[in-house]
Amino acid sequence: MYFRVKRTGSYAYLQIVESFRQAKQVRQRVLATVGRLDVLQASGQLDALLRSGLRFCSKLAVIDAHAAGQTEPVQVQRVGPDLVFGHLWESMGLGPTIKRALQSRRYEFDLERAIYLTVIHRLFGSGSDRAAERWRQAYRLPGPNRCSCIICIGRWRFWVSH
User: Fold this and answer.
1) Could you report the per-residue pLDDT of 76-98, keeping only the tens digit for each?
2) Which residues pair with 13 in a beta bridge?
3) pTM here?
4) Which residue in 19, 24, 132, 151 is a FRET match for 64, CA 20 to 30 A apart?
5) Distant-in-sequence, close-in-space partners of 89: CB < 8 Å, separation ≥ 6
């Protein structure tokens, strides 16, 4: 079922229509003509009708409440940059290559993840390493030991993980 606007002369009418299959053809049947669209919109009856039906839809109720500003997000994280660049990083084998190259060194944190953060920040954001830390907080980046603090002293960078 769906809504359809039927134009007759200079008027537009709102109809509730269902589709069904008869033999091998798809047909439509008008279940009800709700009324003139301009009158329903101007009087607020269309909004009231849809809100009345919203009581029976749990998913749409949440979306409607969020759109009305009645909900607060607990946490919002963007996933786009990691989905795109993470796939390239893995398909090129950069993570294992970096880990092998740094295997003899004894870093107390996951340097491969720190390099990943730096590169993805340079591609999708810009700014200093401190800006990368602020930028990272808004994005979901994988890894068990994500960098949580970047300290810059002159030309030396210290990556501290928690």
Assistant:
1) 667 778 888 888 898 999 989 99
2) 6, 36
3) 0.44
4) 19
5) 95, 116, 119
